[in-house]
Amino acid sequence: MKFPIPATLRVAAAMVCACLPGVSQTRAQAPAPPPPTTAGRWQDASLDDYRKHLVTLGGLTQACATARDVKSCDPLLVGLDDRVPLGVHGKRRLVRYGWLRVLFSRAEESDQAQQAPRSKKPVETNDARVRPKPPTTSQLLLDAVARLQADLAQAGHPQTPEADHAAERATMEAVLAGREFRGLKKPDARDSILERVNRWLNRLFEDVDKLRTRSRWIGRALIWGFLLAVGVGLAWWLLQMERRWRIRLLPEFDGPAPDAASARDWQLWMTDAREAARLGLWREGIHFLYWAVISRLESKRLWPADRARTPREYLALAAPEDGRRPGLASLTASFERVWYGGREAHEADYRRAEELAGDLVAGTMLAGAAGRTGAQSSAGSTAL
Predict the structure, then answer these.
(1) How many domains does the chain have?
(2) Could you tell me the pTM of the whole model?
(3) pLDDT tens digits for range 210-219
(4) Burial state string for 107-132 with b = 16 or more CB within 10 A and e = fewer than 16
(5) What is the side-by-side strand order in the sheet with 92-95?
């Protein structure tokens, strides 16, 4: 529905439009101050500009508290927020005035109108749970004036260089030198790695717990699978440790069994081997060399004496990291070929087996001498 515009209003609008170009030309002739650098609802301001702004805001707040009308309490009068320099490495601090704008918008309404009851429900004044009465807008305006004055006083102090904290540092060092902080140390790379692993495990279990809440069987399967993997890994590690150290865990025994290879001195086996070689019995010579080495190793308790073992079982008893294992494996293979395999032995085969046996016997003697030297050193240090 359209309403007819009176002729007098049309004439007045035409006169106003005719006067506008002149007004704009007059304003254009006056020099305008350079606009401050702004970004959104804040502007870069120096300390002097910040102080002037605080003085202006204090006067506006007092005028608003006195008049309490729309013109004096317009939130647009507050202006933009200020970014003031701190004087430290060119940094700035943003001072916001949103709280004052909200207060101005509330101050447009009188205290009586704000405190008027919104509903007809009676209020029980004797109830201990009734909240305390909030401050009025007039009181908030007075508090705002005091706050602006305090900010102005703080902005008036000259900026001091960074304080020397020598006294505080000395006090902190004295506290850290106490008994309760004596065990502290700077974290190293190992601590950092352990902390990362700990965080990863925590996140893993948190994700598993969340997954369990969504689907119970998936979370339960993951937990049991993790526990099973840990158990299998632990069992495998224990088996490897037992295999590696079982030689050292052998119980003490008085002497070898009567039918064991070590029941006969290894030097006697070597003598028999040389005698067989002198007669050209290379196969028997390799046989005697093998049992001379077995006797020597058994006498050093590399394994418990038992003649019922096969050569391969003797070889399996040697630890993988034992330096004598490769030589023993070569000698065992040579012995099996000529003794059990029926292969004809030659002098070269005997000389090779004799060389291997000599190295194994010499290695065993060196290991025993090193062990005795270590034991004597340990006993000497204990006596000292």
Answers:
(1) 3
(2) 0.34
(3) 766 667 677 6
(4) bbeeeeeeeeeeeeeeeeeeeeeeee
(5) 38-39, 42-44, 81-85, 92-95
